[in-house]
């Protein structure tokens, strides 16, 4: 199957460069709403059969224009939420962001037992596992294409850990608002990244 992972539109916390991972989270700015509307045509062209979003407000807001256009409901799942920051929540310095992403990079490298901050419940195994559970649910619906509105760090971490064809050049860079990762495959045989923010990967056809 084909998964279209989409980062939410710009939020007020994005503008403030603040780590924001708790529920319900920041809402979209005016520019964020414009981004959500602008990405609709690109997503419609991929013929999605279902739309999914995390429990954080910003992903559901970003999904709304597409859902309205296609007359589809938004399937909301907690497993798609952002990587929880723990004691790094609210950090707005480069050092704080670097500490946050260093943990997720260790998960991509296979060190899944490393925890985020002081929270033993947030490690790579649990974080990737909750996202996998939603992907498995989508796969079991036997659909050919689904759009998942999620979060920058979460989608980079999952794609970095689960998809072939990507490396640090991809997941080490910021994911722009409404940036898209396209992957094909399934959890049992593995996913292959097809494109990353519009750039083809490993000779695969453009999504």
Task: Describe this protein's structure.
There is one protein chain. With 207 residues, this protein is α/β, with parallel strands linked by helices. The chain is built from 8 helices and 10 strands. The chain has helices spanning 12-15, 30-38, 40-44, 57-70, 94-108, 124-140, 152-162, 168-171, and strands at 2-7, 50-53, 74-76, 115-116, 119-123, 145-150, 163-164, 180-186, 190-196, 199-200. The strands form 2 sheets. Strands 1, 2, 3, 6, 7, 8, 9 and 10 form an 8-stranded mixed sheet that branches. A two-stranded antiparallel sheet has the order 4-5. α5 (94-108) runs parallel beside α7. The model has no long low-confidence stretch (mean pLDDT 94).
Unreliable spans are none
Along the chain, the helix and strand elements come as: EHHHEHEHEEHEHEHEEE
Proportion in β-strands: 15-25%
Euclidean distance between termini CA atoms: 13 Å
The dominant shape is globular
How many β-strand stretches?
10
Largest sheet: 8 strands, mixed
Overall structural class, as computed from helix and strand content, comes to alpha/beta
- C-alpha Rg (nearest Å): 16 Å
- The total count of helices amounts to 8
Helix amount:
25-40%
**Overall mean confidence score, pLDDT:** 94
Identify the notable features of this structure and list them briefly:
about 210 residues, two-stranded antiparallel ribbon, 8 helices, alpha/beta, single chain, 8-stranded mixed beta sheet
Task: Give a quick summary of the entry.
With 207 residues, this protein is α/β, with parallel strands linked by helices.
């Amino acid at each position: 199957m084909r998964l279209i992972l989409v980062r939410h539109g710009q939020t007020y916390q994005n503008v403030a460069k603040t780590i924001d991972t708790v529920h319900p989270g920041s809402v979209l700015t005016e520019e964020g709403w414009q981004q959500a509307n602008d990405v609709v045509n690109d997503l419609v062209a991929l013929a999605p059969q279902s739309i999914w979003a995390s429990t954080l407000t910003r992903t559901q807001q970003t999904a709304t224009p597409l859902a309205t256009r296609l007359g589809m409901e938004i399937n909301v799942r907690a497993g798609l939420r952002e990587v929880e920051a723990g004691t790094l929540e609210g950090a707005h310095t480069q050092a704080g962001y670097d500490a946050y992403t260093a943990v997720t990079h260790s998960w991509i490298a296979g060190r899944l037992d490393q925890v985020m901050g002081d929270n033993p419940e947030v490690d790579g195994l649990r974080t990737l596992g909750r996202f996998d559970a939603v992907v498995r649910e989508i796969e079991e619906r036997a659909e050919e294409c689904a759009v998942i509105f999620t979060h920058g760090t979460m989608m980079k971490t999952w794609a970095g850990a689960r998809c072939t064809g990507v490396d640090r050049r991809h997941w080490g860079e910021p994911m722009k608002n409404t940036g898209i990762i396209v992957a094909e495959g399934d959890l049992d045989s593995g996913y292959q990244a097809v494109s990353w923010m519009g750039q083809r990967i490993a000779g695969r056809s453009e999504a």
